[in-house]
């Protein structure tokens, strides 16, 4: 029941609303007991008149009007509590989503490296549904049900102790069977959730990579994988259903057996004259009403078990250690003319060997440097460390002589603009994508950034201009257009440090020329770090740092490294030889 305790603790800001709901429903439940009691007096009044033993028509009318008034009051309170319940549902859904989203936004990059986004979203949805269901159950059923059951037993005990005893015995028998039923259900639910998380995650991955799936004609395999998982989920559900209905049969059997005994006692005592007709009607109504909290308790146990298993991953994520605080005020600050320095930096990812080994270098203000080396050498890791996605295993990183350890993630990243190798755009308008790093930008600011990025000419041709939708990950734009939108975004953010991560690796010659012209505007008066495999794009940098197997193999300006034997000259020669063979093939000299 650890997760239930977590639910109660996490919902503390909403406890006041829960208590208001519970009290309203409790009052409504108490009014529901008044009707059977008034029925007793109404029946007794009618029987007295029929048997010529008295009977007062005015009293009868008063009792009927009072019963109607109580029912009307109960209806009014029920409607009010239902409206407050809807308000509570909206509040708890918002609260839980914000709590989860806040945690996700503060987790380290290493968490996302090992998780599928679809799985995270599925865990969020299941957690919210199960927790919301439990809290609604708590306010609507638990407290009112317990007190209504107590009141019913006490009233029955007043009129007939054996009947009260048999009615009371319904609860431990029914609840015990319900408890074991829900425990067995919950164990299987955990297995089912694990398969479902993987399946939902896979579906989202397939949708995100639909071109890949279709180009490899893998639709059948993907459909088969999901189908097998869904079949496994149905097998588990079938076992859950069989177990539940078996226990449900014994619950129903115990209920009917005890009700049969109660009916015998009630009818015999009424036949013997120990109970009046009115008392018989009252007892039968109370026993019938006792079945409602009984069924409610069974529902409560089911909701408790669903909340226990359904919220497991939700609270698992909330329990993770937050590595970042995006709310610090320092995110608005920018350093003037910063430099960056690595001092004896060593780094390895979780469950991997050393990626960087004792790396040291310094990038001066407004200097433009390129990181080169074979794939897997450690270039991207250097960028990840500069962006503070990870912390060095050993060593220190400095920005403008300030140690990264003393700086917030927001401060570091606010000083950096990044143009990705992959076209990282949102399914939104051109305006929203360009203004992503500067949400207060005006239309004129956005248009100016688009012009500097050589993007305004094609954007203004769209039907809705800067208000045009670009599609998921910019699917409605060409590669060159997407890159220039990214460059416009970086221009508008106007950070003093610029990182270009293979920004032109996937472009054709014409698009590369257009993007290079845009980058020339972007790189003015900035510290620039470029990752590039195509060396034609880095011939004008101030310095090249060649990285191989996690160490700095060489460094210097492009001219001296090209003439000096080493990693850079080898890589450059491979590219030149490849281009030369292409020219010879087409007899271009």
Task: Give the key terms.
589 residues; ABC transporter transmembrane region fold; Rossmann fold; 3 domains; six-stranded mixed β-sheet; four-stranded antiparallel β-sheet; 10% strand
- From the 3D coordinates, which CATH architecture of the largest domain would you assign? Up-down Bundle
Count of helices? 19
Quote the beta fraction: 5-15%
Low-confidence stretches: none
Instruction: Write down the CATH topology of the largest domain.
Output: ABC transporter transmembrane region fold
Total domains: 3
Q: What is the ordering of alpha helices and beta strands?
A: HHHHHHHHHHEEEHEEHEHHHHEHEEEHH
Radius of gyration: 36 Å
Write down how many β-strands occur, each being a DSSP E stretch of 2 or more residues. 10
Q: Biggest β-sheet, characterized?
A: 6 strands, mixed
Structural class: alpha/beta
At the fourth CATH level, what is the homologous superfamily of the largest domain?
Answer: ABC transporter type 1, transmembrane domain
CATH level 1 class label of the largest domain:
Mainly Alpha
| Overall shape | elongated
**Order of strands, widest sheet:** 6-7-8-3-9-10
The helicity comes to 55-70%
The overall pLDDT average reads: 80
What's the N-to-C terminus distance?
A: 78 Å
